[in-house]
Amino acid sequence: MPSASVRLRRKLDVILPAYDTPGQMLEEHPRARELYSTYLAASSYVTLAMVPLMEAALDRSRVLASTDPVAAGLAGYLQWHIPEEMHGDEPGDDLLEDLAAVGVDTDALRLRPLPEKIAALIGTQFFRVRHAHPVAILGLLWLEVYPPDALAVERLIERTGLPREGFRQLLLHSELDARHGVELQEVVDSLPLEPWHEQLIGLSALQTMSFLIDAWLEVVAAPALEPAT
Amino acid sequence: MATERDNEQRLRDAGVILTTESLEAPFQAVVEGLTPHEVDVMIAVKRRLDEADRTFGWDPESGEPRPSSARIPP
Predict the structure, then answer these.
(1) Residue of B38, B37, B28 lying closest to B5 (CA atoms)
(2) Residue A70 and which of A176, B12, B50, B60 are 20 to 30 A apart at CA?
(3) Which of A195, A49, A50, A45 is nearest to A115 (CA)?
(4) Quick check: A33 and A228 in contact, CB under 8 A?
């Protein structure tokens, strides 16, 4: 019988080619230079929300831990993983610096409406963590199993001609997430998950990837449908 | 109530599963274990990708493999 992490991985492999496609479209897009900052900004909202979401999951796990061994194990993992995901004095600060390096007004980014799919992703995660089970957060973190490809990032730097400083977090995560992804799979296998926990993590991961695919496609595909006037 | 066989048929009908042959055992087990919500998400992703491909001039129903150049508007 395959382990829980293998079962999850096989499930998510079904849409992995779709998850890779928006990035490939960006790389091949003739307006890649123009679109990159918007593409990265869409992802940045998830990065900025990731630590607060993990903190919410940790808080909820601690509440449940005395009677819930999955929550107890999850709390232990989140406690040491949250500091690893800070990436700045405030969560996500380093990514905001990358965005600023490619011309994004990061103050305006905080104030403007979030892409609808990203708002749905963050809201769905928070609801599940609070009202279903905090282990749902592992579906969001499952993104670490699929890190950015360093060679593809290098090609994107060359193709866009944008400053390398705008790609630091992508390059960093191409290395870091390879390790984090392995650790995450070990955590999944170490928790005494019941089938409904696994389904919750699986749906959470599928929806996370689906929302991100939608948000990225809105950047790389929509402009061709609605040319600027 | 959806059945396990419905999962495979729904994914085939939507073009998520492309092979006309029987699925390999590990993949078959994955498909059978999917919840209806998970199947819905996979189908929605496929539809959104097809829509994006059409934007770039490639018909996903054509049976042709997706050429990378088809993603680039002329």
Answers:
(1) B28
(2) A176
(3) A45
(4) no
Q: What is the mean pLDDT of residues A134-148?
A: 95
**Which ipTM did the prediction report?**
0.81
Min Cα–Cα distance to chain B from A226, Å: 10
Closest residue in chain B to residue A15, using alpha carbons only: B42
3-state secondary structure A149-178: CHHHHHHHHHHHCCCHHHHHHHHHHHHHHH
pLDDT at B69 over 60: no
**Contact present, A23 and B50 (Cβ < 8 Å):** no
A-chain residues within 8 Å CB-CB of B71? 24-25, 28-29
Which among A11, A25, A224 has the least Cβ separation from residue B30? A11
Are A224 and B73 within 8 A, CB to CB?
A: yes
Q: Which two tokens stand for residue A54?
A: 């993990």
Q: Tell me which of A25-39, A62-76, A208-222, B56-70 is least confident.
A: B56-70
